[in-house]
Amino acid sequence: MKVKETWRHFTPAQVKDFLRVGHEGRDHPSRLRTIELLEGMTSVLDVGCGTGVMFELLRERRPDIDYLGIDVTVQFVTAARERFPTDATRFRESSLYDLGRLPGVYDAVLCRHILEHLPDWEPAVQCMYERAGKKLIIVFYLAPRPLRFRRKRDERFEPGFYTHTYDLGRFVEHLLNGLTPAPAEVRIHPRQGTSDPRFRWRDRENIIYEVVR
Ligand SMILES: C[S@@+](CC[C@H](N)C(=O)[O-])C[C@H]1O[C@@H](n2cnc3c(N)ncnc32)[C@H](O)[C@@H]1O
């Protein structure tokens, strides 16, 4: 699967603070809500964990939870391991398309701000859902919305990345309803904080889809 890996070209300074500080940093409302949604879960697989910002929050608020973070960008995994040396084995370099090789099932699988950056989200969602014993938590900064002319996705921002807004109808009707086994429930948590005001998509609010098995 082809992935545009622009993150690989980040400088060490960019890597260090990536999504940890500023408007979209550690205390973003969507992160705090995600922690709440992990209540009752004993393990979490954080897909596209970056430099370990969610781990940092979990360590403070949910130290009981068993955590594994995977990310395709080697610099991020290295930075996470350096930041949390005693938990270094909790971070692995891996693509979500290789999740099939990972042993075990996690109560919750989390993917925050990942699907927008993929060439196609369909195989990714099914892959992650299969590893989720109880729920899959998907956080979007570009919420799916109805697209005109039967378009599947809309790529308007950031030339160096895939930055997709996907069609809402297809996401819910086709993708989520098409998961096997069918989800018991899908809970939607809108208005989970805005993006960085410097970005062109600053007016969009994060949304969380909680897919319960
Ligand atoms: C916008 S960042 C989000 C980081 C983190 N989830 C957070 O919320 O702070 C997107 C992350 O997805 C990772 N990523 C992109 N494609 C991936 C793939 N195929 N498998 C695993 N991680 C991927 C990138 O390396 C990057 O760390």
Strand order of the largest sheet: 3-2-1-4-5-9-8
Secondary structure category: alpha/beta
Q: What is the rounded Rg?
A: 16 Å
Total domains, how many? 1
Instruction: Give the CATH architecture.
Output: 3-Layer(aba) Sandwich
Write up what this structure looks like.
- The protein is α/β, with parallel strands linked by helices and 213 residues long.
- The protein has one domain: Vaccinia Virus protein VP39 (Rossmann fold, 3-Layer(aba) Sandwich).
- 25% of the residues lie in helices and 22% in strands.
- It contains 6 helices and 9 strands; from the N terminus they run ααβαβαββαβββαββ.
- The chain has helices spanning 12-17, 29-37, 53-61, 74-83, 122-131, 168-176, and strands spanning 43-47, 66-71, 91-93, 106-112, 132-140, 153-155, 164-166, 185-189, 207-212.
- It has a 7-stranded mixed sheet. Strands 6-7 form a two-stranded antiparallel sheet.
- Helix 3 links the parallel strand 1 and strand 2.
- The mean pLDDT is 90.
- The structure holds S-adenosylmethionine.
- Residues 3, 7, 19, 47-50, 53, 70-73, 76, 95-97, 112-114, 117 line the site of S-adenosylmethionine.
